[in-house]
Design a protein that fits this description.
189 residues; alpha+beta; two-stranded antiparallel ribbon; two-stranded antiparallel sheet; rod-shaped
């Protein structure tokens, strides 16, 4: 099972594929008093594409605005907006100690992540619930992997760095002025 980010991506892919396979419509009504029913997932005709048809025997309060909100163009625009949100709220590659959300930002002098776990990102949770996320599904999702710390061969280990600092800051003992030499001072070459 993917993490929350991957699960939402799968849901957007499904919705987008359905919208691309839908017929041309009609996805709007000139007279809002007419009743329309959109057969999307359960009513298919010859081409195998979901259709929108007039159904005067429909008992529900389905209206023209509802149909227009489910037009393929509208759904594809919504999928594009959802993908932009997903692009902002990704795993932060700069945080190596936890799977933090990059889009939620940081706080404090040390720039700690606002959200320590990508599966707890409020933006992604809201987006997931819009795509049918339930607490049961959330419990089955994988935890995001902490990004691997990149190797830095250009920086020596701390022990070597300390030795280098001592070596560069050391002065030869022969250059110590006589006034600063103590009673136990011994000249070293």
């Amino acid at each position: 099972m993917p993490d929350l980010h991957g699960w939402i991506t799968q849901q957007i892919d499904k919705v987008e594929a359905t919208a691309r396979d839908a017929t041309e419509g009609p996805w709007h009504v000139d007279e809002p008093t007419e009743r329309w029913e959109a057969y999307r997932d359960h009513q298919l005709i010859g081409s195998g594409k979901p259709i929108a048809t007039l159904n005067s025997e429909y008992n529900g309060p389905l209206n023209a605005d509802h149909i227009a909100l489910h037009s393929p163009d509208y759904v594809l625009r919504r999928c594009t907006a959802d993908r932009k949100i997903l692009a902002r709220h990704t795993l932060n590659p700069d945080v190596h100690y936890e799977p933090a959300c990059k889009g939620c930002g940081t706080y404090g002098d040390m720039e700690l992540s606002e959200v320590d776990n990508l599966n707890e990102c409020p933006e992604l949770l809201d987006l997931g619930y819009a795509h049918g996320l339930t607490p049961e599904i959330l419990a089955t999702l994988d935890q995001p992997e902490t990004p691997a710390r990149p190797e830095r061969p250009d920086i020596p280990p701390p022990v070597h760095l300390n030795a280098l600092v001592r070596l560069l800051s050391a002065r030869p003992t022969s250059s110590v002025p006589p006034a600063l030499r103590g009673p136990n001072w011994k000249a070293r070459p």
